[in-house]
């Protein structure tokens, strides 16, 4: 679901068909900023990108004429809606039906049906031409501005970053929140309670990286991606004292942040939405309670935790 961040902007992940009529949807992080009058999208949450990282696309709200459900227009694209901007139609995929409804309502509420002035189009084009050069070790990223039906559309023409970064971004496409990790192994060997991508703070460098988390009966592990078989680290649940929404979030200025407190270390983890954050907190807490109860079988653990998650 979209959520309101600390700057009072509506944010969340969506899939967008960046190349019109291509049928290929890419996972992007969207920010609806009514104060700036724009809808922008990034490769990931800007909090997880290098400082000053540019968006990969943007659209002025005054050029949006209508936002609506596009299920009939794109029957093969689940939870699809369309943004009409001049002669261009942007097709996007939400995470579920409620997410679709929330985004459509938010965008329609934030936009006004107006005809852009010629001066606005010219000014927007000039602003894009004057984008600052990238300095230091950051790779140069090129953009193109197209005037389609009187609407300036800004898109990135090439991806920055190395092959490893691109591979990790590919793994982010579509939500993995309920996808079992070990697809090639016997199901009985792994009691998967919850799985999905979150962003974790490193122990030494204190940087933030997206990792694939897996909660099982007796442990919580994280991997470089959902394709990896060996975890970067496994946290035994018996060592976890508590899991809760992070009280230091005001200091770190991060949304949807929770902490897993263990005997030796506190793990700071950022979910993609408030709902996902609370879902992880309840899932881990429920698994800890079930594990510490007497005579709990693996099946009983799953039932208890799933009952807890049903109340979300």
From TrEMBL:
Residue stretches spanning the membrane: none
Domain PH per the UniProt entry, residue ranges: 7-112, 191-289
Annotated compartments: Cell membrane; Cytoplasm; Nucleus
Top-rank taxon: Eukaryota
GO molecular function: lipid binding
SUPFAM superfamilies assigned: PH domain-like (SSF50729)
GO annotation, cellular component aspect: cytoplasm; nucleus; plasma membrane
UniProt xrefs under SMART domains: PH (SM00233)
Keywords assigned by UniProt, alphabetized: Cell membrane, Cytoplasm, Lipid-binding, Membrane, Nucleus, Phosphoprotein, Repeat
One Pfam family recorded for the sequence: PH
Main location: membrane
Keyword Cytoplasm recorded: yes
InterPro entries: PH-like_dom_sf, PH_domain, PI-Interact_SigTrans_Reg
Membrane topology label: Peripheral membrane protein
Role this protein plays: Binds specifically to phosphatidylinositol 3,4-diphosphate (PtdIns3,4P2), but not to other phosphoinositides. May recruit other proteins to the plasma membrane.
Protein name: Pleckstrin homology domain-containing family A member 1-like
Gene name of the encoded protein: LOC115433971
């Amino acid at each position: 679901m979209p959520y309101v961040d600390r700057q009072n902007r509506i944010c969340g992940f969506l899939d967008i068909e960046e190349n019109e009529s291509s049928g290929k949807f890419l996972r992007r992080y969207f920010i609806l900023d009514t104060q700036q009058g724009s809808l922008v999208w990034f490769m990931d949450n800007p909090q997880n990108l290098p400082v000053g990282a540019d968006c990969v696309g943007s659209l002025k709200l005054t050029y949006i004429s209508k936002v609506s459900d596009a299920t009939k227009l794109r029957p093969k694209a689940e939870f699809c809606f369309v943004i009409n901007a001049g002669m261009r139609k942007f097709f996007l995929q939400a995470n579920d039906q409620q997410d679709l409804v929330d985004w459509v309502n938010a965008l329609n509420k934030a936009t006004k049906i107006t005809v852009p002035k010629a001066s606005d189009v010219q000014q927007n084009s000039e602003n894009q031409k004057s984008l600052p050069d990238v300095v230091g070790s950051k790779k140069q990223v090129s953009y193109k501005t197209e005037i389609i039906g009187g609407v300036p559309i800004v898109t990135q023409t090439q991806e920055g970053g190395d092959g490893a970064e691109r591979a990790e971004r590919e793994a982010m496409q579509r939500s993995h929140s309920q996808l079992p990790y070990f697809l090639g192994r016997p199901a009985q060997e792994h009691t998967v309670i919850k799985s999905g991508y979150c962003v974790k703070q490193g122990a030494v460098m204190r940087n933030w990286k997206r990792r694939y988390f897996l909660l099982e009966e007796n442990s919580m592990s994280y991997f470089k991606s959902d394709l990896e078989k060996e975890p970067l680290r496994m946290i035994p649940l018996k060592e976890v004292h508590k899991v809760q929404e992070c009280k230091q979030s005001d200091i770190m200025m991060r949304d949807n942040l929770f902490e897993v407190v263990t005997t030796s270390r506190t793990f700071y983890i950022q979910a993609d939405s408030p709902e996902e954050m609370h879902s992880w907190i309840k899932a881990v807490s429920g698994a800890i309670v079930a594990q510490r109860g007497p005579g709990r079988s693996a099946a009983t653990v799953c039932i208890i935790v799933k009952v807890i998650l049903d109340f979300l």
